[in-house]
Design brief:
This protein has 2 domains: 170 residues, STM4215-like; 76 residues, no CATH class. The protein is built from 9 helices and 9 strands. The chain has a 6-stranded mixed beta sheet.
């Protein structure tokens, strides 16, 4: 990753590398090497001319960049930088072409031995060392080279073409991480409460129909109580008059016999035909008296 100044920083790094390797032989002064326009070379013998920037479509570096604080940075812009390097020797005309060929040979050797720009040649604020950024000679045809020089408005000169990159330019879009822990207790284990799901149903009073205000089984219970109400009352009455029913049984047993002892006197057959109600009132058993 690098700052938006990386394009300028790469140009500076290339110049520093060439000055270190070409001076004092075959170039006598470091000031004779620099970045310039082909039409305005000034005193530069070795001129580095940037002429194109293209987006890298290989897909490298297309992922989001996670930051130490948990934030996420958008993918960087990946670009390739194109340069043409030409030589304009100040030697005498007889040796001018040979001198330029010697300098170009040293340039090719330098970039062959340094496939990336070493970090020591980069500005301190470049944002990243470029050991991972490749520098390679661009294999283009003579026709394409002529087009480049024509673009500058110059006739073709002996030169070499290089491509640098892809180079990443950082995005300024940073998405902050969502806060997950509201309170952290230092010196203790962070308590994580368990999640409890509770479901509740709320019904408005006006939405309740009258037919649903009483359970159906309550009506059934009331009906059952009505049906068996008389029986229960009969059972209670039978319990209350249980002694009388037992007395009736004793009367029947006494009626079957010919004679029966009583407290008041004997019971005759004619008396048996009398009203059972009167017998019940007149007969008193010894057991009851006891």
């Amino acid at each position: 990753m690098a700052k938006y100044t990386i394009i300028s920083d790469i140009g500076k790094g290339m110049i520093e590398l060439l000055r270190d390797k070409l001076v004092p032989d075959p170039v006598d002064k470091a000031e004779s090497i620099g970045i310039c326009d082909p039409k305005e070379r000034g005193g530069y013998i070795v001129g580095v001319h940037p002429y194109d920037i293209k987006e890298d479509t290989s897909g490298r570096g297309a992922e989001n960049n996670p930051l130490p604080d948990g934030s996420v940075q958008d993918p960087p812009a990946m670009v390739e930088l194109y340069y043409v390097i030409s030589v304009s020797s100040k030697a005498e005309l007889e040796v001018k072409a040979l001198d330029e060929a010697k300098i170009i040979g040293k340039i090719i050797q330098t970039f062959k031995d340094n496939a990336t720009i070493p970090a020591r040649y980069m500005p301190n604020n470049a944002g990243m060392p470029l050991e991972s950024v490749p520098i390679s000679m661009l294999p283009i045809s003579m026709e394409e080279k002529v087009k480049v020089w024509t673009m500058f408005g110059e006739s073709y000169k002996l030169s070499v073409f290089y491509v640098v990159g892809p180079v990443a330019i950082d995005s300024e879009k940073i998405h902050k991480a969502k806060k997950r822990v509201e309170t952290v207790h230092l010196g203790s284990k962070q308590y994580t409460p368990e999640k409890v799901l509770e479901f509740a149903t709320f019904i408005k009073e006006e939405d309740i129909d009258d037919e649903y205000t009483q359970r159906p089984d309550e009506d059934e219970d009331e009906d059952e109580n009505d049906e068996f109400g008389d029986e229960s009352s009969d059972d209670e009455n039978s319990d209350e008059f249980g002694d009388e029913s037992s007395d009736d049984e004793n009367v029947d047993e006494v009626g079957d016999g010919e004679e029966s002892n009583s407290v008041d006197g004997e019971i005759t057959e004619d008396d048996e035909t009398s009203n059972e109600g009167e017998l019940n009132e007149d007969i008193n058993f010894e057991s009851s008296d006891e």
